[in-house]
Amino acid sequence: MTTAVVLKDTFVKIGGYPDPSWCKLSSDQAADHQRGEITVAECAGKCLSNAACRIFCVSPGLTMCDLYSTLMTVDFIGFGANLYQSCYSSWAHKFNLITPNMTVMSSAPFSPNFKGLMTIDGYCCDFEMGYRFISNNAPTNFLNVDFGKVVTIEELRIAAFYGYFQGIEIRFGSSSNIATNLQISVVYGASNGDNRIYVKPPATGRYLTLKKNDYGAMDVCEMQAIPPKL
């Protein structure tokens, strides 16, 4: 398989840029190379060889290759517009149905900085405490995303950290009474990082709900909902 095919099949070019102050794994300077530049394909290869890498960015003139563990979607505007020429993500999906302008309802956040809207803003760094929903300790906590219309999903990508994503019931359907919607998954044990939930067969609905059914806090950093392949 050629490098071009690997790049196309694995990475999606994103419109924004990660925060250079957080979640950076490494920085490779072109001055250390005989040609004096680092190609996009070479930078992609460095990301693929690092298990923690989710984003790679190249600077103008291909003089620098930076790797990040940041999880971003194609919709996040991002940081560092003057620092990079382009960035590519292996976590972002170009057909993600969740966008930052959707309506989100949630149980009470731990603080105003950790509100439910943070789960659809398109940005997540496990070392950066902002840009995530963290609830209070409570008997039940929930997060509900209204797509605004009926959609069909085949996969969920949910980024969560710190061991607070457990005992989570996930429902999806067209009823505003979320208890009657289809249960598509239950996450029992503590789960950290990139959680992939495959919906077989694909489900149709408008409301996606994550509900914690036992006492404790709930942490969700970012979400994507992927439609079936055409």
UniProtKB/TrEMBL annotation:
<dbReference type="InterPro" id="IPR008979">
    <property type="entry name" value="Galactose-bd-like_sf"/>
</dbReference>
<protein>
    <submittedName>
        <fullName>Uncharacterized protein LOC108674790</fullName>
    </submittedName>
</protein>
